[in-house]
Amino acid sequence: MQDVDNRKVAVESYNRCSDLLDRDDRSQDEDFDLLTSAFVSRYHWSLAGGPEQWTVSNWMVSRAAADIGEGSLSLAFARRANDACES
């Protein structure tokens, strides 16, 4: 098995989220890709980043979830990001 560059995967996944969020004409499959990419980025930042990246990755999951209409999930991750910012 190859070594994974967690930082590279985290950045690429985060950028994929940004690209998908900029689109007005996403398909349902792309909505799933958006949320999946946000979680992939979050996971890899948990391995390669620090508190700032962890907070931003929680915000991105919140943002992606909100954009596809998953309000409860969005709120849960927004609270995590907010709590991290306050501490």
Question: Can you walk me through this structure?
Answer:
The protein is mainly α. Helix content is 80%, strand content 0%. It has 4 helices and no strands. Helix 1 (6-21) runs antiparallel to helix 2 and helix 2 runs antiparallel to helix 3 (51-67). The longest helix is centred in the middle third of the chain and has 21 residues, at 28-48. It starts with 5 loop residues before the first helix and ends with a helix. The model has no long low-confidence stretch (mean pLDDT 95).
In short:
This protein is mostly helical. The chain has helices spanning 6-21, 28-48, 51-67, 71-86. Helix 1 runs antiparallel to helix 2 (28-48), helix 2 runs antiparallel to helix 3 (51-67) and helix 3 runs antiparallel to helix 4 (71-86).
Please trace the helix and strand order, writing H or E for each element.
Answer: HHHH
Radius of gyration computed on alpha carbons: 13 Å
What is the helix fraction of residues, given as a range? over 70%
**Structure summary, number of beta strands:** 0
Strand content bin: under 5%
The 3D shape can be described as flat
Task: Enumerate the spans where pLDDT stays under 50 for 5 or more consecutive residues.
Answer: none
Sequence-ordered SSE layout with sheet pairings:
Elements: H1 6-21, H2 28-48, H3 51-67, H4 71-86
Helix pairs in contact: 1-2, 2-3, 3-4
